Each structure stands twice: as C-alpha cells, then as structure tokens.
Amino acid sequence: MKLMFASDIHGSLPATERVLSLFNQSGAQWLVILGDLLNHGPRNPLPDGYAPAQVADRLNAFASRIIAVRGNCDSEVDQMLLHFPITAPWQQILLERCRLFITHGHLFGPDNLPALSAGDVLVYGHTHIPLAEKRGDIFHFNPGSVSLPKGGIPPSYGLLEENHLCVMTLNDGQVIAQSEINP
Q1: C-alpha torsion angle, residues 7, 139, 90, 167 (rounded to 10)
Q2: What CATH number was assigned to the domain covering residues 2-180?
Q3: Of 30, 35, 61, 74, which one is least surrounded by beta carbons within 10 A?
C-alpha cells in the first residue's frame, strides 16, 4: 500500500491544487490529511491563495480517497463544507507489521505520546517542520506543511511506500527527510 500525507493546508488553494496533482501522479491509494485544512488560524498569516471554500470543493472531489483528522484550527463549520470526516482527533492505519497512529499533533505528539508498541509510527503535523526518524522504539513522521512551512524549510508532503517513509518538497520533489520502518 502506498499512502500520501499532507498537513496544514490552512485554506491555501495553490497548495491544495499542487497536493492533489501530486496525489494523482503518485499512485497512492489514500491521501492522509493531518488537520488544519481550511482555516489559517489566529497565529498564522494568511497563506498564499487563501480560499477555504474553494479548497473544500477541490478536496471533496477526492472525498472517497481521503483519510483525515481534526487539527487545532478545524471546526464543525469546516466539516459542513467537506464530504469526508475531519472531526476525529486521531485515526489508526494497520499495516502488516506495525500501526500508524495518525493525529494532528496538538493533542498527541512527541511530548504526549499515545500508547504505542515498538515499531509503530506516530504520524502528525502541527509543527510545520518535517521529520522522519526513529526515537526509541517509535518512528516519528511529520510531512511538514504544504502552505505555511517553518524553520526555513520549503512546503512539503510525505509518502509511505513499502517500509519507506519520505518527506519531499512540494514544488520540486527533493527528499528532505526519510526513514525505513520495520526493515
């Protein structure tokens, strides 16, 4: 199974269109969105091409192939625009040899781990900083932000194929973080 991960869209139409274009090209079965889909939030600047209603329309075209969790900037009003569920604070995806615990990162995250087994993967956004590494017995995977990256890192997204986690830049596909899980 191949999965694509995007986080922290924050209502950016150009970022959404780029993500969906890459998703179409990727061969991934699912697009996993790690929260903060439509709103920019009071601590963030307006992202380029801020158009939440149009972002919802674009994402709705892929509703049957999206798995999403709620971010700290998402609300029930956002859910009214979207044709796929976004109100769960976390989801789990079971792979053959491990579990992916999918969350935004503001409730569960590196400093507040859920109950995980050795070899499981904590997948989160929220920080807008990409990461793919093993910490202790748990893998940490953050695809960064597609619209409002931080730390001088360009917009990015993630892929999981086979046992390979990879974070790539949104505009040119350069690998900026990667890790093998359960080799």
Answers
A1: 10
A2: 3.60.21.10
A3: 61
Tokens of 4: 């694509």
Distance CA 171, CA 175 (A): 11
Which DSSP letter does residue 63 get?
G
d(CA 125, CA 24): 22
First to last CA, the chain: 16
Rounded to an integer, what distance in angstroms lies between the CA atom of residue 112 and that of residue 29? Answer: 30
pLDDT 10s digits, 5-58: 999 999 999 999 999 999 999 999 999 999 999 998 888 889 999 999 999 999
Which is nearest to 163 in space by CA: 141, 179, 145?
179
Side by side, which strands form the sheet with 138-142?
90-94, 99-103, 121-123, 138-142, 131-135
Which three-class secondary structure state does DSSP give residue 77?
helix
Q: What are the sequence ranges of the domains in the chain?
A: 2-180
Q: Report the chain's mean pLDDT, rounded to a whole number.
A: 96
CB 33 within 8 Å of CB 6: yes
Fill in the DSSP letter of residue 164: E
CA distances from 25 to 4, 7, 22, 106, 159 (A): 11, 18, 5, 31, 12
**Per-residue model confidence as pLDDT tens digits over 83-101:** 999 999 999 999 988 999 9
